[in-house]
């Protein structure tokens, strides 16, 4: 069931990143998760610059999980750049945040985010949230090959 999908995880919190990667791979190896720790690194990955010039190190993701609060370049700015690029704009982008602020959500959807998810603080609930994202975006939703 399912095919291999490359997921780009943009997350500066190593605990959240590790938990997300563990949950997404879940031993099934359906997903290949690439983790970058800040917005500048995400843009380098997506535009294949600096350490990501080799396409082997930066395969096109089928899904981007993008934290809003990031060092260097914040998630909103990364989203803006993704959605203003002809090729990258087709990649579904799920915004992740620990904040309950509506203005972040309004801004994200206005810039073309495909989904907006509040990360629960509770460990178990966080794992469940990531599983739900995977179930919908990887196993249920039909995605364009980018």
Describe this structure in words.
There is one protein chain. With about 150 residues, this protein is of the alpha/beta class. The chain contains five helices and five strands. It has helices at about 15-25, 40-45, 75-85, 100-110, 125-140, and strands at about 5-10, 30-35, 65, 95, 115-120. It has a five-stranded parallel sheet with strand order 2-1-3-4-5, with helices on both faces. α1 links the parallel β1 (about 5-10) and β2 (about 30-35). α1 packs across α5. It is globular. It starts with a strand and ends in a 6-residue tail after the last helix. The mean pLDDT is about 85.
How large is the radius of gyration? 14 Å
User: What percent of residues are in strands?
Assistant: 15-25%
Taking pLDDT < 50 over at least 5 consecutive residues as the criterion, the unreliable ranges are none
Q: What is the number of helical segments per DSSP (H or I, 4+ residues)?
A: 5
* SSE pattern, N- to C-terminal: EHEHEHEHEH
Can you tell me the overall shape? globular
Structural class: alpha/beta
Could you give the distance between the termini? 21 Å
Largest sheet: 5 strands, parallel
Number of strands: 5
The side-by-side strand order for the widest beta sheet comes to 2-1-3-4-5
Helix % is 25-40%
Q: What is the average per-residue confidence, as pLDDT, rounded to a whole number?
A: 85
